[in-house]
Amino acid sequence: MSELRIPYANETELVMDILKHGAAVEVIAPEALRQNILQNLQQAQENYLPKQRE
């Protein structure tokens, strides 16, 4: 596994850059960024789950 450190000013742009790499990347730190990525992935997953009809 390789480690990469990236300084950033805009977290939204960083999140989008990370997400485009899918399962090929894991954010280790900072924890807040890791949680942000997790939330984005969970929201994306919900888009593909079967919807319950009312």
Structure overview:
The protein has one domain. Helix content is 46%, strand content 0%. It has 2 helices and no strands. Helix 1 packs across helix 2 (31-46). It is elongated and about 45 Å long. The protein starts with 10 loop residues before the first helix and ends in an 8-residue tail after the last helix. The mean pLDDT is 93.
Q: What layout of secondary structure does this protein have?
A:
Elements: H1 11-19, H2 31-46
Beta-strand percent range:
under 5%
Helix content: 40-55%
Main β sheet profile: none
Q: Terminal Cα separation, in Å?
A: 46 Å
Q: What is the number of independent domains?
A: 1
User: Which residues sit in consecutive blocks of at least 5 with pLDDT less than 50?
Assistant: none
Give the class from helix and strand content and strand pairing: mainly alpha
Give the helix tally.
Answer: 2
| Succession of helices and strands | HH
Short description:
It contains 2 helices and no strands. It is mainly α. The chain has one domain (11-48).
Observed structural traits:
about 55 residues, mainly alpha, about 45% helix, elongated
